Amino acid sequence: MSALGQTVGKAFQPIKAKIAPVYGKYRAQFDQRWNAMQTREQRMLQILAVFLGIFLFWYLLWLPLDARLERAEMRFNSQQSAYQRVADGAARVESARANQQNQRSAISANQLSGFVNTLTSELDMEVARIQPQQDSWVLTFNEVEFDALITLTARLIERGVIIEAMDAAETSEAGIVRVRRLQIRAP
After folding, report:
1. Where is the chain membrane-spanning (predicted)?
2. Are residues 92 and 126 in the same domain?
3. Of 79, 97, 140, 142, which is the most exposed, with the fewest CB atoms less than 10 Å away?
């Protein structure tokens, strides 16, 4: 026996000493009752014990694992759909960037503010703050739909507006983001 086994054995000796008389008493009563039963009754109890074991396995182990698996699949599907929305948005922005040269003329610096105001009202986006910063504009949105934000950036890029920085964070509501900073400037 290993040193660990001896240590564990010594730790349980006081417990074994207290349990052994009680266990022996109940074991003797069980054996006496078991032997007093007919063979047919013993088989029925054995079958009942097997069914009880199966039920306990199903109820205590299988059901909780199945429920956890279902919740994990739901979270995975939710994350996958969120990823797909972001990937679609990125593709729209990239296509807008590629089509920029073929589309409309670029916006000048003095037209940028008016164009942004028109575009945000068209997309039903509420701008929390517009702040000029050197030759750029910094926009802040409290809560905005992710798809509307992607449409806004795609249209800005189509008109030649340069997006210098964007800082967006998710909210507790699905499909809604908070834009802390969208820094844009005219070319």
Report:
1. 44-65
2. no
3. 79
Phi, psi of 161 (to 5 degrees): -70, 135
Q: Percent of the chain having pLDDT more than 70?
A: 91
> Is residue 92 helix, strand or coil?
helix
Distance, in Å, from the CA atom of 71 to the CA atom of 74, rounded to the nearest integer, reads: 5
Q: Is the pTM of this model over 0.70?
A: no
Which of 176, 178, 174, 147 is closest to 74 using CA atoms?
174
- When pLDDT is averaged across residues 50-66 and rounded to a whole number, the result is 94
d(CA 168, CA 134): 22
Query: Do the beta carbons of residue 156 and residue 102 sit within 8 Å?
Result: no
DSSP 59: I
The domain total for the chain is 2
Q: In degrees rounded to 5, what are phi and psi of residue 130?
A: -120, 125
| 3-class secondary-structure state, position 87 | helix
Q: At what angle do helices 63-98 and 146-158 cross, to 10 degrees?
A: 20
Residues forming a β-bridge with 177: 144, 170
- How far separated are the first and last CA of the chain, in Å rounded? 80
